[in-house]
Amino acid sequence: MKTLKYITYIILLGLIGFLGTQTSRAEEVTGEYILKMIDDNVYLDKAMTEATMTVFDRRGRELSFKSRGWVKGADTRLVEYLHPPRQKGVKMLMLEDNLWMYTPEPTDRIITISGHMLRQSLNGSDLSYEDMMENSQLIKSYDAKVVGKEQYNDRECWVVELTANREDVSYHSRKMWVDTERWLGLKEERYAKSGKLLKRLEILNVIKLKDRWYPKKMRFKDMLSKGKGTEYVIDKIDIDVDIPDHMFTKASLR
Amino acid sequence: MTVLRLAFRNVLGAGLKTWLNVAVLSLAFVVIVWVQGFYDGVNQQALDAIIDIEYAGGQFWHEEYDKFDPLTLEQSHGKISPDVQKIIDDGNAIPILTTLGAIYPHGRMISLMIKGVKTDQDIIPLPSHVLENGNPNLIPALIGTRMAEAGEIEKGDVITMRWRDANGTFDATDVEIVEIMNTIAPSIDAGQIWIPIESLREAMQMPGEATVITVRKGFDVEIGEFGQFYFMLPEKLLEDMINVMKGRDIFWMIMYVLLSSLGLLAIFDTQMLAVFRRRKEMGMLMALGMTRKEIVGTFTLEGALQGLLSVVVAFAWGAPICYWTMTTGFRFGNLKEGGGFAIPTVVYPEYSPQLVFGTIFILMFFITLVSFLPVRRVVKLKPTDALRGRWS
C-alpha cells in the first residue's frame, strides 16, 4: 500500500514538473521573442544577393527582372538590374529614407524617388519601391501577440498578430504564420488601419545560411487587385561579403 | 493709272482662270478665319469654364502646392489661418483637401487624387450635395464621366479606395459612388474622386486642414499671404494654362500655312504660266513704250487684284457662315476632351477684327509677293526677244 502511495507521489511530482517545464516554454515564446527570432534570421547586416522577380499581370503575362543587390544595415542598400536588356544597368540606391535611381546611357541620369513615388509599384509588380528596399527590424516597429499555433504548408507555425507601436509605418498591423523551428514568417498578411487586408506575402522555399534560415522564394500579392501576384526568388546570396562604403554613394551609381 | 486699268482688264479678261483662282483663295480665307475663330472660341470658353468651375473668385493655395506637380501633394496641406477661416465661416469660400491614393474598380488599381469638399457649398458648380446621400456605413463618393469611363464605374458601385494618412500609414475603405457628374472641365473630373472633406480629414488625420481654398466669385480678397496659404486671382491662376495654350498654337500655325499655301500656289502657278505664255504680249507692251518696271507692276497687280477679289467673294459667302456659327454655335455631341482642357459640347467661335483684318493683311502680302516673284525675270527681257517669244 505504501509502495502504491510512493508511486502515486512520484507520478504526481513528475506530472507537475512536466507541466511546469511546458508552462515556462510557452512563456518563453512571446510575441517579442518571435519577432526577435525573425529579425535575427531575416535582417541582413551585410550581404550580396542575386534575385529574379517575376511579375504575373492580369492577362497572365510574365515579366522577369534579374537584379544584384548589396545590403549594409537596415537603411543602406544598392540594387542593380541585370535583365531585361532595357532595364540593364539601372541602379537604385537607398540611404536612410532617400532613394535614387540611375538610368544608364543614353539618358545617364540620376533621379530622386521620394514621397509618393516610393509607394508606386516597382516595374508593375505587387511590390512598391519601399517594399523592395525594406530591411528594417520588425521588433523596432511592432508589438506582437501570439494568438495560436497552426499548420501551414506542413510546417508548425506560431500565429502572431503585430500592431504598429510607431505612427510612421506603412502597415498598421500584420498577421504572421511563423515557423516554430526555422523562425521565418511563412505567410504574412499586411493590413490597413481600417483592418482591410492589403498585401499577402508567402515564403514558398527557404535556404539555410550558416546558422540561420532565409527565404529563397517568395510570393507577394496585392490583395485589392486581381493580378496573380509577384514572385521573388533569391538565386544567390553571400552574407560573408565585404562591401566597400564607397559603393553606397551617389557618385558610384554612374 | 494705265497699269492699274490694264491689270484690271486682264484679270476680268482671263475669265474662268481668274474665277478659279478667286474661288481657291476665298476658300482659303474663309477656312483660315473660321478655324482660327473656332480655336479662339474654344480657348476662351475653356478659360471661362475653368474660372466658373474651379477658380471662381480666386484661390488660396498652400505654400507647398503646385497644381502641375502631384508629388507636392503630400506636403501641400496645412491649418487654415483665422482670417481665412472667417471667410469660410461667412460662406464666401470653401476649403478643399487633396491627397493621392488609389481605387480598385473590378480589381484594377487606378491611381488618382482624392479630394475632400464641403457637401453644402454653392461656390463652385460641383454637385457636392449628393455626398450627403448613399449608404451611411460607406463613404459617399462623386466622380466625373471621364473617371467613370476610365474605371468602368457606374453609379451605385462600391469600390475600395486606398490612401496613406499624414504619417504615411496605409488605410483603405469601401466607398459608394453616389453620383457620376457630367462636366466639361477635366480638371475636376479626370483622375480624381470627391468625398466629404470631413471624411477625408479624419482619414488623413488632418483636422481643419486644406490644400486650396476657393473664394466665391465677386468676393474681394487682398492678394498676399495668409499663414501657410497665399491668395491668387483667377487671372494669375490661369497664367500657366494660357502659356500651355500658346504652346499649342503651333498646330494651328501649321494649318494656317497649309491652307494659305493652297491659295498662294494657285496664284503662283498662274503667274508662272503667264510669264511664259504672255511673252509676246510683254514684248508688244514694251514696243508700245511701257517700261519693264511698269510691266512687272501690271503682272504683280493682276495677282494682287485676284487676292482682293477673293477677299470680297470670301466676305460674300463666308461672313454669313461665320455669323451663323457664331450665334448658334458648333455642336460637338459628346466630345469633351481637348488634351486636358475643357471643350464645351457647343463651341461658339470668336471672330475678332484683329483676326479678320490680320488674316487679310498677311494673305494679301504673300499673294502680292508670289505674284511678283515669277515676273522678276521680265526686268532682263529684251523687247525683240519677247516679240519673238524668247527669253533674253
Quick summary:
The complex is a heterodimer of chains A (254) and B (392). Chain A is α+β, with helices and mostly antiparallel strands and 254 residues long.
Written account of the structure:
- The complex is a heterodimer of chains A (254) and B (392).
- Chain A is α+β, with helices and mostly antiparallel strands.
- Chain A has a domain at 36-66 and 122-247: Lipoprotein localisation LolA/LolB/LppX (outer membrane lipoprotein receptor (LolB), chain A, Clam), CATH 2.50.20.
- Helix content of chain A is 19%, strand content 45%.
- The longest helix of chain A is centred in the N-terminal third of the chain and has 27 residues, at 2-28.
- Chain A is globular and about 90 Å long.
- Chain B has helices spanning 2-13, 16-55, 82-89, 145-151, 197-204, 234-237, 239-247, 249-277, 279-287, 292-328, 353-372, 383-388; strands at 59-62, 78-79, 93-103, 110-117, 139-144, 158-164, 170-181, 192-196, 209-210, 212-215, 225-226, 229-232, 330-331, 337-338, 341-342, 346-347.
- In chain B, strands 1, 3, 4, 5, 6, 7, 8, 10, 11 and 12 form a 10-stranded mixed beta sheet that branches.
- The two termini of chain B are 28 Å apart.
- The model of chain B has no long low-confidence stretch (mean pLDDT 85).
- The chains are: A alpha+beta (254), B alpha+beta (392).
- At the A-B interface, loops of A face strand 6 and strand 7 of B.
